[in-house]
Specification:
Length: 243
């Protein structure tokens, strides 16, 4: 299959959270993603308020990533997914960037107000980095008041919609809101948030649906252009044409 997707959000590197439990499980998820068109996959272990990134955990995650990389069947990069917490406001966010970009992935909390998210995004921006805000369409706050998403986007922050929202996995409300964000140009990119074989890191089905609705514009939501990441396939073509 033609591999052209860049997926900036997944849980394929074992890290003690609710993603892949073992390197073997993680590699199966990577190979499955490659078989469904993904060229570059970011593993983004959770950084939760009650399960932070200790130095010891970070070493283990980076070692697991290094062990997996040569066998993943795609370009496997590392990042993190931050759940907003006051303690993160005291840290240098460069620690959490998506490899090879100037972007930091953070989620809208599933419940409660987005105040700490906004403070964290401001903190990231003040460090010269770009916030990428994960799955607003799945959260209580934005479902209740979609104008919150407009406000986040108006600040120049990127909004990442989950592929599984667009395919209806999370029910009709996130599906409708996810499509609305994309069709209004507020949602900038789509990622899998893949965790396990029953929730794999696939983008092809959502991309096919997006193509039906948006035509050629759809690919820009899936190809890493919002992040400034260029899949290898495109890079090698550019090199061969001297571009
Ligand atoms: Fe996630």
């Amino acid at each position: 299959m033609d591999r052209r997707f860049v997926d900036c959000h997944s849980h394929v590197v074992p890290s003690g959270d609710d993603g892949a439990a073992t390197i073997q499980d993680g590699l199966s998820l990577c190979k499955s993603a490659a078989g469904h068109g993904t060229a570059v996959l970011f593993a983004t272990p959770h950084v939760w308020p009650y399960f932070t990134l200790s130095d010891e955990r970070e070493v283990e995650i980076r070692e697991a990533h290094e062990r997996m990389r040569p066998h993943a069947g795609l370009e496997l990069r590392l990042g993190f997914e931050l759940t907003p917490a006051q303690a993160l406001l005291q840290e240098d966010p460069h620690r959490y960037v998506l490899d090879g970009t100037d972007c930091v992935l953070m989620e809208v909390p599933f419940s409660g107000p987005p105040d700490v998210l906004i403070a964290l995004a401001e903190h990231v921006e003040a460090a010269g980095l770009r916030p990428v805000i994960a799955h607003p369409e799945r959260t209580e706050a934005v479902l209740e008041d979609p104008s919150i998403a407009d406000d986040l986007a108006a600040r120049g922050w990127m909004l990442q919609v989950n592929a599984t929202s667009l395919t209806g996995r999370h029910g009709p409300e996130p599906e409708e809101l996810g499509w609305s964000l994309i069709e209004r140009g507020i949602g900038n990119l789509v990622a899998s948030d893949g965790h396990r074989t029953t929730r794999p890191a696939h983008l092809d089905e959502a991309h096919a649906l997006a193509e039906q609705r948006l035509g050629d514009r759809a690919l820009s939501l899936f190809d890493g252009s919002a992040l400034g990441v260029m899949p290898l396939r495109t890079a090698s073509r550019a090199a061969s044409t001297g571009a």
